[in-house]
Amino acid sequence: MLAELKGPACPRCGCRDGETLMGQVRRGQPGNLKQCRYCSRRFWVPAEGHAQAESTPLEGAVAYVSVRCPRCDSQARVTSTRSPLRWHKCVSCGHTFKSVEGP
């Protein structure tokens, strides 16, 4: 039986299987540097009991909406972006497709 992964989600692919690279203090907050075992993205996770500093959104920034594969409805990764087009690749079936960024 496979165990359910309950770690922090990778900001790139959403995978919860991450490896802790090192513990450190960043901007006065203790936490861990993690690396996703699927896409190799490194990301910072604040230690439990320490609130993450509120970050101010960039002016004019739009929240990214995750795109699903039109073939199998699985999660898709962004492979390239040239405004207004964004290219994706399905994590499950490998189908490549593109989407148009909204206004």
Written account of the structure:
The protein is mainly beta. It folds into two domains: 9-48, no CATH class; 62-103. It contains no helices and six strands. The chain has strands at 18-26, 29-36, 42-46, 76-82, 85-90, 96-100. It has a three-stranded antiparallel sheet, with no helix packed on it. A hairpin with a 2-residue loop joins β4 and β5. The N and C termini lie far apart (45 Å). The model has no long low-confidence stretch (mean pLDDT 77).
Q: Oligomerization state of this entry?
A: single chain
Number of domains: 2
Sketch the topology as an H/E string, one letter per element. EEEEEE
Global morphology: elongated
Question: DSSP strand (E) fraction?
Answer: 35-45%
**Rg:** 16 Å
What would you say about this model in short?
The chain is an all-beta fold. The protein has strands at residues 18-26, 29-36, 42-46, 76-82, 85-90, 96-100.
Quick tags:
6 strands; mainly beta; 3-stranded antiparallel sheet; 103 residues
Task: Give the secondary structure arrangement, pairings included.
Blueprint: E1 18-26, E2 29-36, E3 42-46, E4 76-82, E5 85-90, E6 96-100
Antiparallel strand pairs: 1-2, 2-3, 4-5, 5-6
